[in-house]
């Protein structure tokens, strides 16, 4: 058995929480307005991306791909990030759930062959600062989610645009995955047209204007050497 990936989060009260990741899941097509999601699926189909059999979707990802890193290695130039939030289950109740920022780095070449495959080609980068979900539950929709590709704003939305954490916690409970060590990413929001997504750096921010808090992650994208053979 391989060692579990370990993530450590700083909380606003100055404490830290360390979690061994045993299950990692990426939500997809998870907009709260499912009519807009259907239109987006149709657009992706024109680009060759296979449509899901149901929405919202949920993709299992290898747990070691949950990372807190400043660099992501890729095999070619057509990969990009996606601004998301992440739930970190640290215990048996919803009081034990943390919320942090995340960026799901995705292989766009592989995506046309299988979305689930593309999610396993690069890491999910998570922030190092997290909040207890119960502390922000009463104003989740006011929290903003933004991403910059090469320092150009490419995604700008709020958590009101995505299905709620409660939706996904219920889904985890139904699948017997509500347990310490489960990490779930929310799915992403629309990208701004005309911004180059195949960038050399990505930065994502969750901003809570009510409690004046930010959770951020960022990384550079590094091309690996060309294969031999």
TrEMBL record:
**Matching InterPro entries:** DUF2848, Fumarylacetoacetase_C_sf
| Leader peptide range in chain numbering | none
Q: Which SUPFAM superfamilies match?
A: FAH
The record, for Pfam families, names: DUF2848
Record's superkingdom? Bacteria
- Show the GO MF annotations: catalytic activity
This chain belongs to the protein called: DUF2848 domain-containing protein
The taxonomy runs: Bacteria, Bacillati, Actinomycetota, Actinomycetes, Mycobacteriales
């Amino acid at each position: 058995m391989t060692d579990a990936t370990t993530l450590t989060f700083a909380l606003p009260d100055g404490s830290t929480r360390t979690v061994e990741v045993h299950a990692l899941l990426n939500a997809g097509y998870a907009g709260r307005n499912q009519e807009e999601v259907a239109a987006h699926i149709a657009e992706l189909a024109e680009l060759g991306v296979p449509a899901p059999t149901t929405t919202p979707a949920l993709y299992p990802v290898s747990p070691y791909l949950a990372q807190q890193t400043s660099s992501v290695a890729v095999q070619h130039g057509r990969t990009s990030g996606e601004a998301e939030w992440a739930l970190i289950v640290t215990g048996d109740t919803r009081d034990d759930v943390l919320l942090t920022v995340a960026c799901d780095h995705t292989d766009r070449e592989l995506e046309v062959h299988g979305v689930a495959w593309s999610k396993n080609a690069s890491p999910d980068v998570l922030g190092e600062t997290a909040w207890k979900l119960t502390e922000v539950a009463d104003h989740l929709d006011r929290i903003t989610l933004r991403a910059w590709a090469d320092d150009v704003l490419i995604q700008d939305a709020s958590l009101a645009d995505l299905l709620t954490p409660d939706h996904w916690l219920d889904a985890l409970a139904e699948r017997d995955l509500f347990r310490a060590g489960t990490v779930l990413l929310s799915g992403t929001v629309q990208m701004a047209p005309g911004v180059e997504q195949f960038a050399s750096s990505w930065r994502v921010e969750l901003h809570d204007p009510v409690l004046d808090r930010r959770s951020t992650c960022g990384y550079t994208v590094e091309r690996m050497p060309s294969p031999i053979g």
